[in-house]
Amino acid sequence: MTFLLRGVSGFSRLGRAMSQQLPKPVESSIIAKLTAEFEPAHLDVINESYMHNVPKGAETHFRVVVVSDKFEGMSLVKRHRSVQHVVSSELECGVHALSIEARTPSQWEALAHKVTTSPSCMGGFGK
Question: How far apart are CA 122 and CA 127, in angstroms?
């Protein structure tokens, strides 16, 4: 499995060892927890904080794409709740927004491995 971490500078590929470039602490925690719980066939953790009115380098807004067999037979709401539960400590301690795409492998294949893009921030403090 390959992880994709995206931020202001674009993409960086991280293999299982994640030895070339270490992500930020919140990203690392989200990756570790989602990997342990869902054993994903595909996992994207995208720090979208730069798209919002937050300090540079913030880890407050994330988008995750998790593709796992463990989602088979689960409703979309249950999938989202299970992802939220796994990263609940991050949501309680600074992560302000979490966008979730939780798919089964067959759904991921049907989408041709495409991730939807997030809309631009429409507000926030200081705007």
Answer: 9
